[in-house]
TrEMBL record:
Keywords: Cytoplasm, Gluconeogenesis, Glycolysis, Isomerase. This is Triosephosphate isomerase. InterPro entries: Aldolase_TIM (IPR013785), TIM_sf (IPR035990), TrioseP_Isoase_bac/euk (IPR022896), Triosephosphate_isomerase (IPR000652), Triosephosphate_isomerase_AS (IPR020861). It comes from Brevibacillus antibioticus. GO terms for cellular component: cytosol. Pfam families: TIM.
């Protein structure tokens, strides 16, 4: 039985003060157990968020990191810098990073390896564009991205990671994938993990759906056998909405 995981991805939203205000509200209303809770905040808000959430079961995550331990990489952040703050998760290979910041399967792989070495849990994002979907390429795209992300990683490490299937056409558009379609692609991703790393690993790895998930539709995704939670952008920005998503994940 896989524990559901609801991760908020704030993207480039919220100052430190706004993050603190969110945390105070979330703390006050955080009464759901049996769901792993993560907020992936901008780098600048992570320390404040960690401080506010101390003593709660809400973990914090980053939205990116560099794969080197240190060096002359102006503007970058390493895994150990994140660890020092108390970060536990890191989103890697989000489609916005692939689209706007030249992230490739190769750099995602290097980051996955570095994150695991540092003891961070990667949330590895995969997903097809609308053009790829319409061309019938969804299965090939998620296979290539999944195999690429985990190249050279061992089965035990893969089992403890999180994968987020996010069809690009569903991100921030209000056009969510149907729960059945999302489950079908997530089952393909799970079978790729099974082929590469064995059935036990495939059964353990958590695979989220992401793309216009809201309190109103979370239960439909959680009702699907292969969907283990959600990576949520817009609807994670308000504490009450985030807590409703968490509560909705118990319907599994
Ligand atoms: O990482 C989160 C996804 O990009 C989904 O964003 P959204 O929930 O705003 O559609």
């Amino acid at each position: 039985m896989r524990t559901p995981i609801i991760a908020g991805n704030w993207k480039m939203f919220k100052t430190m003060a706004e993050a603190r205000a969110f945390a105070q509200e979330a703390k006050a209303g955080n009464h759901t157990s049996g769901v792993q809770k993560v907020i992936c905040a901008p780098f600048t808000a992570l320390a404040a968020l960690k401080e506010e959430l101390a003593g709660t079961d809400i973990a914090i995550g980053a939205q990116n990191m560099h794969f080197e331990e240190q060096g002359a990489y102006t503007g970058e952040i390493s895994a150990s810098m994140l660890k020092e703050i108390g970060v536990e998760y890191v989103v890697l290979g989000h489609s916005e990073r692939r689209q706007y910041f030249n992230e490739t399967d190769e750099t995602v792989n290097k980051k996955v390896v570095a994150a695991l070495a540092a003891g961070l849990v990667p949330i590895v994002c995969v997903g097809e564009s609308l053009e790829q979907r319409e061309a019938g390429e969804t299965a090939d795209v998620v296979r290539t991205q999944t195999e690429g992300a985990f190249a050279g990683v061992n089965a035990a490490q893969v089992a403890d990671t999180v994968i987020a299937y996010e069809p690009i056409w569903a991100i921030g558009t209000g056009k969510s994938s149907t729960a059945e379609d999302a489950n079908e692609t997530i089952a393909i991703i799970r079978s790729v993990i099974g082929e590469r790393f064995g059935q036990a690993t495939a059964e353990k790895v958590r695979i989220q759906y992401g793309g216009s998930v809201k309190p109103e539709n979370i239960a439909s995704y959680m009702a699907q056998p292969d969907i283990d939670g959600a990576l949520v952008g817009g609807a994670s920005l308000v504490a009450d909405s985030y807590l409703q998503l968490v509560a909705g994940a118990t319907s599994r």
